[in-house]
Design brief:
Number of strands of chain A: 14
CATH topology of the largest domain in chain A: D-Maltodextrin-Binding Protein, domain 2
Low-confidence stretches of chain A: 1-28
Largest sheet of chain B: 2 strands, antiparallel
CATH architecture of the largest domain in chain B: Orthogonal Bundle
Radius of gyration of chain A: 22 Å
Structural class of chain B: mainly alpha
Helix content of chain B: over 70%
CATH topology of the largest domain in chain B: MetI-like fold
Shape of chain B: globular
Largest sheet of chain A: 7 strands, mixed
Structural class of chain A: alpha/beta
Number of domains of chain B: 2
CATH superfamily of the largest domain in chain B: MetI-like
Strand content of chain B: under 5%
Number of strands of chain B: 2
Number of helices of chain B: 13
Mean pLDDT of chain A: 91
Strand order of the largest sheet of chain B: 1-2
CATH architecture of the largest domain in chain A: 3-Layer(aba) Sandwich
Shape of chain A: globular
Helix content of chain A: 40-55%
Largest interface: A-B, 38 and 26 residues
Oligomer: heterodimer
CATH class of the largest domain in chain A: Alpha Beta
């Protein structure tokens, strides 16, 4: 699977000098060669300098401080350049203007192919950091890779979990459901008991629906170099669209945009009994619903087949060095330390990050921690187990940022109305195909 | 502009040129060139190209304009703001006129308070206003939800697809009513007293004076207020953009032409197509404003 660390050969040196020509040839999926430049990185770290890091998350301040404490000659400035799509726009603008380009940025997995394809990110293969592959979960590593190269190092992942309100479940006399069939039954019991909806679906959130399709075995996006195939009619996708169309039609779930004031209040007061989300959500819920200490528990996500449980990921991101960084060697040095050093990982986890690093996921101290907010539950165990069960083979489109932005146009109204969700997915697919053609892809 | 002194100097003995006017004029010229002319020229240039993720930038001439003219999303947005304009602008100008006439009649108590009160929303930034109305419109925990819960009524959610355009119209009216009222009120204050005296001698009451003296005298001001509102309607962006996060299924990415241009530039990697859409929208606005002016002018002459 992984390419062996090679020494600095003449061919590889040429590859470094002609960055633009590497990994974008006809044979796009051939693994890029690894170039050992640890000496350069060491020298850059020793010499020091200034770095600018873009992230909208507040989970990394202490890890960066720890880096600076160990490398007093390096100064790292964290800049919030906007959340998600806003940041990618700002990044694209900075790169095309050739000014104020950050050295590093947090990149979500769904956006990585688009940014890698438009040559905004440095490949870690060119700096020998691809040898760190085994430090990270397989799924996170493959999501930082595109067309044979790896464009940064993974940081956090979002294997699906179920956050549920213990009191609402107790009142309805039910246990956390383990399959989607049980989940639908639980929804009915909760509805009868307290009138609450078991959960909400966000009509503007493509990520939530994508992760459910992934978990059900659907693989709607296939990418091979400049060819893409989009198909929302496979078995897994149909399973998801039918299930949620029924749940919506029976008023067992409600259509509601997430992350709004109304939505948080619904979660806080139990009118929404569960939240289907990624493992990163623990920090978000405990940081936002501060009055609800002890109300929530974490359960494994319900599965389609109890005999062969499969999970998927919702969100997650890594950090990449940006093309145009004035000091890529120093940026790579920071990236390596930040992504693998023990004190960095400890600080990140303490601030609520769910790591993509195997060392933390296997660390007994991490797994055994009893979280007060979740009633003393050893919730990290559930997360680590969820991470283990993530199914392989999922790919994002090389224009997923666009795809996600127009989800609300076509699928959204079918969730809100509600109508057949499948109809919305087909319309979304048609939009994505015509967009792909317009962008010069070979669309199947 | 600087050519004027040259012209007057032609054929005469060379005179000392007077640059004083230019000094006053330069700051405006600089801002105008940098803020209006340069971006317009740049955008026009951009609009002749096409960007692709695969293949980069290529010259397509007027291709983007031809695409936009048959783009159902652009056309849907334009017809939506057209509908908005046809309903919201008359309602808002009518209310502003009423408020200005009431203020001008001097027959109400706490006039200053009312004047400030009606004008106040204009001082609220439109993003903040949209956020605030977003909370009010909430049909579960917002004011609408609380009203329904308290009275057992079943008001429809203002952010549902059928109602959202009206909900946006309400926010815009709330915001700009005071601004338009002020334009009209200022015009009312400049009507000469003699007209009122003459009307009083003829035996006209307050209502008759309003109808036969005030409103005709307000025509130029009404026209200015209407023109600003027409332009504002075509530019509609902040309110739907902010409300979109609360109602992604009701407000699409191409809900108004400006939102579509924003979406194309910032999420769809199509800055060049976005430039063409923006320029076309500008052209549509100019045409509509011109037609409105022409109709008003014809009406006045008659």
């Amino acid at each position: 699977m992984r390419s062996p660390r090679t020494t600095l050969t003449a061919a590889a040196a040429g590859c470094v000098l002609l960055l633009a020509g590497c990994g974008s040839g006809d044979d796009a999926d051939a693994p890029a060669e690894s170039v050992d430049r640890s000496a350069d990185i060491e020298a850059a770290l020793e010499e020091g300098g200034d770095l600018v890091l873009w992230t909208w998350s507040t989970k990394f301040d202490r890890a960066v401080e720890a880096f600076e404490a160990e490398h007093p000659q390096v100064d790292v400035e964290i800049v919030n350049a906007g959340q998600s799509a806003d940041q990618y726009t700002a990044l694209q603008n900075a790169i095309s203007a050739g000014e104020n380009i950050p050295d590093l940025a947090m990149i979500e997995y769904f956006a990585l192919p688009q940014l890698a394809l438009s040559e905004q990110l440095e490949s870690v293969n060119d700096w020998g950091l691809d040898t760190l592959e085994e430090e990270f979960t397989a799924s996170s590593w493959s999501q930082m890779s595109y067309g044979g190269g790896t464009y940064g190092l993974p940081n956090n992942t979002g294997p699906l979990i179920l956050v549920y309100n213990q009191e609402v479940f107790d009142s309805a006399g039910i246990e956390p459901p383990t399959t989607w069939e049980e989940y639908a039954e639980a929804a009915e019991r909760i509805k009868e008991d307290s009138g609450a909806h078991i959960t909400s679906i966000d009509p503007g959130d493509a990520g939530g629906v994508n992760s459910r399709i992934w978990q059900a075995g659907g693989r709607p996006y296939q990418v091979d170099g400049e060819s893409v195939a989009i198909d929302f009619s496979d078995e897994g996708t149909l399973r998801v669209s039918e299930y949620w169309s029924d749940m919506l039609a029976d008023d067992l779930v409600v259509s509601q945009p997430g992350w709004t004031d109304e939505w948080w209040r619904g979660l806080g007061d139990g009118t929404l009994a569960t939240w289907i989300t990624g493992a990163w959500a623990l920090g978000n819920i405990s940081g936002t619903l501060t009055d609800n200490v002890g109300d929530f528990r974490i359960a494994p996500i319900p599965v389609w087949d109890a005999d062969a449980p499969e999970n998927a990921e919702n969100g997650g991101s890594g950090f990449s060095v940006i093309r145009g960084s004035e000091n890529p060697a120093l940026a790579m040095g920071f990236l390596e330390w930040f992504s693998t050093h023990e004190s960095s990982l400890e600080a990140q986890v303490a601030d609520g990050n769910f790591p993509a690093q195997n060392t933390t996921l296997q660390d007994p101290a991490y797994l055994d921690e009893e979280l007060d907010y979740f009633g003393g539950q050893q919730a990290h165990r559930v997360l680590a187990e969820a991470s283990d069960q993530v199914a392989e083979g999922w790919e994002y489109l090389p224009y997923q940022v666009y795809a996600n932005s127009v989800f609300g146009d076509s699928v959204g109204p079918r969730i809100a109305a509600p109508g057949p969700v499948q109809e919305g997915l087909e319309e979304w697919g048609a939009d994505l195909r015509s967009y792909g053609e317009r962008q010069g892809f070979d669309v199947d | 502009m600087s050519a004027v002194p040259w012209e007057t100097a032609r054929g005469r003995p060379r005179r000392r040129r007077d640059w004083t006017g230019l000094i006053f004029f330069t700051p405006f010229l600089l801002v105008f060139v940098m803020g209006i002319v340069a971006p317009l020229v740049y955008a026009s240039g951009l609009s002749l190209y096409r960007d692709q993720l695969i293949g980069g930038r290529s010259f397509v001439g007027l291709g983007n304009y031809l695409d936009a003219l048959t783009d159902p999303r652009f056309l849907e947005g334009v017809s939506r703001v057209g509908l908005f304009l046809a309903v919201q602008v008359p309602v808002m100008i009518g209310l502003a006129l009423l408020a200005a006439l009431i203020l001008d009649s001097g027959r109400i108590r706490a006039m200053r308070f009312m004047r400030i009160g009606v004008f106040m929303p204009y001082a609220v930034p439109s993003v903040v206003a949209a956020l605030m109305w977003g909370f009010i419109y909430g049909d579960q925990f917002g004011l609408v939800g609380q009203f329904n819960a308290a009275t057992g009524a079943a008001l429809p959610g203002p952010l549902t697809p059928d109602w959202v355009l009206i909900a946006i119209g309400n926010v815009v009216t709330w915001q700009f009513l005071g601004y338009n009222m002020l334009i009209l009120y200022a015009a009312l204050r400049s009507i000469p007293e003699e007209l009122y005296e003459a009307a009083a001698i003829d035996g006209a009451g307050e209502a008759r004076i309003a109808w036969s003296v005030k409103i005709p005298a307000l025509k130029p001001a009404l026209w200015v207020a209407t023109l600003f509102s027409i332009i504002g309607s075509f530019q509609l962006f902040n309110e739907p953009h902010v409300l979109q996060s609360l109602a992604p299924a009701s407000i699409s990415t191409y809900y108004t032409p400006n939102m579509y241009a924003y979406q194309l530039a910032f999420n769809a990697n199509q800055v060049t197509y976005s430039a063409a859409v923006a320029i076309l929208l500008g052209a549509v606005t100019v045409v509509v404003a011109y037609v409105a002016q022409w109709m008003t002018a014809r009406g006045t002459r008659r």
